[in-house]
Amino acid sequence: MRARLHALPFLLLPLLSFSSPANAAVREIDQACALPGCFPGDSPGFPVTLAAAGEYRLTSNLDTRVAAGPENVTAIEVSSDAGAVDIDLNGFEIRGPVACVQATTSCSPAGFGTGVRGSTGTSVRDGTVRGFGANGISLLAAGRVERVRAWDNGGVGIYALGEGSVVVDSLAFRNGRDGIHTYRYGVIRSSTVAWNGEDGVMGSQRSTVDETLAWANGRVGFWADTEFLVRLSVATQNGNGGLSGFAIASVGAANGTYGITASFADGSAALQCVLAGNTNAPMASLVISLGQNACNGGGC
Amino acid sequence: MRPLARLARSPRSPIVAVHVAIALALLATWAPAHAAPRDGRWAIDAVCVPVGCFPGDAPGFPVEITAPGSYVLTSDLDIFAEPSAELVTAIYVTSAAVDLDLGGFTLRGPVACSGQPLACNFASGNGVGVRAPGGTSSLRIHDGAITGFGAYGVQLAGDFPALDRLRIIQNRVTAVLASGLGVRLSEIVVNRNGGAGIFVSGPGASVRDSSISDNGGSGIQTGAAGAVESCLVTTVPSSSNALTVGFGSRVGGSIVTGGSSGITSTGGSLVLGNFSAYSQSYQLDLGSGSGRTAAWLFNVSNQFATGGLSLGQNLCDTSGC
Fold it and tell me: What pLDDT, on the 0 to 100 scale, is given for residue B288?
């Protein structure tokens, strides 16, 4: 019996040699580890490559301006076969060298670097992505962006191209192209898009926008190609129209051209909207009024 | 230092003189040893302030944060003992991309405000709890309290700051004064500050899930394209509006009481699902002219607004409006 007890610690040794699940669950990323490589699968230097599914957390700012040709450098890249990856920016900033001029496509230096390039099941949250040559965040498959501020990126602030991607509580400001761009079945909620060079939100094919503000973007506040729903949102002082798609209980005021403009495939419709003070007219000619709208103080 | 220097020059004690000379040389090269960052975060506490907490921070107040990174309070910081404490700023940030975690602690100045009408115990002062001039973009301040400063609780001029989970109480002027783009505040408690509660003049600000009550001036004021969601705003003085948003803004799901007017906008805004009551003049003052506001689905206890446009389903006193 005593011999068995003496052997017990040795029997337990293999168990002790592994990290606890809690420690293993979150992998940390910081500026210091980016240069030698932060974990297996991440080669030295930028981008920090996330090759395995799981949770990742920034523990410092990441600044790609230390790299050669930083306008072409991507900060974080999720491997295409990584699986679901959660990136917690933890309040920190991912920073490139680019600055843009408000409500124009003028950004410099030009480049093709991206802040975070995601894959299937990537989520990015709680931080800032600023100053990249191309997009701030690019999700090429379904993903989620939450509480992110994307600004001064040469391309789109948040480019959520995967079907069914979700962008919530985020802000896209002064990016060279669209503020937020979603593709099929995208959801945008409680966000603000302003001073972007092209559209505030570009929503393709059955995307929805809820409770979002689009202000002073270069082109349309909320622009759609087909079947786009805008609800409880406000589009003001955009260069080439406020709302588009099917707009419900929203405001399109003081925009260039129309309060609601026709989306280029399906036309547009407005219900319970206020459309006032736009340079051309409250509604473009192909827009259908579903009633209870107010146009420059009168019904329409 | 002077007696030691005289001793070192004394011809009567050459051995002592050598020792003293060595000691003086060592003293001349001495500099305060800053603690190293822990887990990548620089600590700030009352002990390190007199000597400087990290490189770039000169001894004494304010604690100066001059480099990007993560900083955390590990004790309260009181400025009571400072001469003219109402003029003292606790933390001064000059770098972009700083995360300042108050760690549940308090930045505390000498000001107290009480009574009705609200009165503070200092007539002047320019001290600030956390101050950051222009160029300090992406500053985040969170999880703690800022109380009793000579002017502002937080004064920010950089773009895209974020304030989360703060209690900002009894500062002599304004609790939060911010002028940059895209200011974001969430879960903020603002109470009994001598002036306005939250004043954010830049476009694209948002204030969410916050309580602003019993300040000496207006409750919340935003610039263009501001969003105020799920807030409680209670304003006492009849000379200030409780909640004012700029053009193209959105106010939703909030309870607003008191003030000259309750919810006001210069136009082009959407005001949805709020309760606004007990203001001196209008519960809703929603702008007029070409960019009229949608006022929809809210409840108003006594009189309705000037300007704006009701899209129906509003309740004014006991009837629809």
Answer: 61
Nearest-angstrom CA–CA distance, A112 and A94: 15
Walk along chain A (300 residues) in steps of 10 and give the mean pLDDT of each run: 43 36 73 93 95 94 96 96 94 96 97 96 96 96 95 97 93 98 93 97 89 96 87 94 92 93 80 88 90 78
Asked if B290 and A236 come within 8 Å (Cβ–Cβ), the reply is no
A130 → closest Cβ in B138, B247, B248: B138
| Distance between B111 CA and the closest CA of chain A, angstroms | 31
Tell me the residue type at B34: H
Q: What is the CA radius of gyration of chain A?
A: 23
Q: Is the ipTM beyond the 0.85 threshold? A: no
Return mean pLDDT, chain B. Answer: 85
Distance CA B91, CA B54 (A): 13
Closest among A188, A145, A190 to A202, alpha carbons compared? A188
Query: Measured between beta carbons, which residues in chain B are less than 8 angstroms from residue A63?
Result: 68
With both helix axes pointing from N to C terminus, report the angle between B14-28 and B2-9 in degrees, rounded to the nearest 10: 140
Q: E strands within B102-242?
A: 106-108, 113-114, 119-120, 128-132, 140-147, 152-156, 162-169, 176-178, 184-191, 198-200, 206-208, 211-215, 220-222, 227-229, 232-235
Distance CA A121, CA A166 (A): 11
Chosen from A66, A230, A236 to mutate, greatest number of chain B CBs within 10 A: A236
Residue of A nearest to B248 (CA): A236
pTM of the entire predicted model: 0.86
User: Residues with Cβ < 8 Å from A128, sequence gap 6 or more?
Assistant: A89, A92, A93, A94, A95, A148, A149, A150, A151, B97, B138, B160
Among B223, B233, B218, B136, residue whose Cα is nearest residue B182: B223
Cα B303-B307-B310 angle, rounded to 5 deg: 75
Whether the bond into B203 is cis, omega within 30 of 0 = no
Alpha helices in B10-153 (DSSP H): 14-28
Digit-coded pLDDT (tens) for A228-268:
899 989 999 999 999 999 999 898 989 999 999 987 666 78
Query: Rounded to an integer, what distance in angstroms lies between the CA atom of residue A144 and that of residue A164?
Result: 9
Mutation target among B65, B102, B136, B140 for the A interface, most CBs of A within 10 A: B140
Q: Which residues pair with residue A151 across a beta bridge? A: A130, A173
Q: How confident is the model at residue B270, as a pLDDT? A: 85
Tokens of A299: 């019904």
Residues 6+ apart with CB under 8 A from B106: B76, B77, B144, B145, B146, B147
Peptide bond into B62 cis (omega under 30): yes
Residues in chain B, pLDDT under 70:
1-35, 287-321
Q: What's the rounded Cα separation, in Å, for the pair A46 and A185? A: 32
- State percent of chain B over pLDDT 70: 78
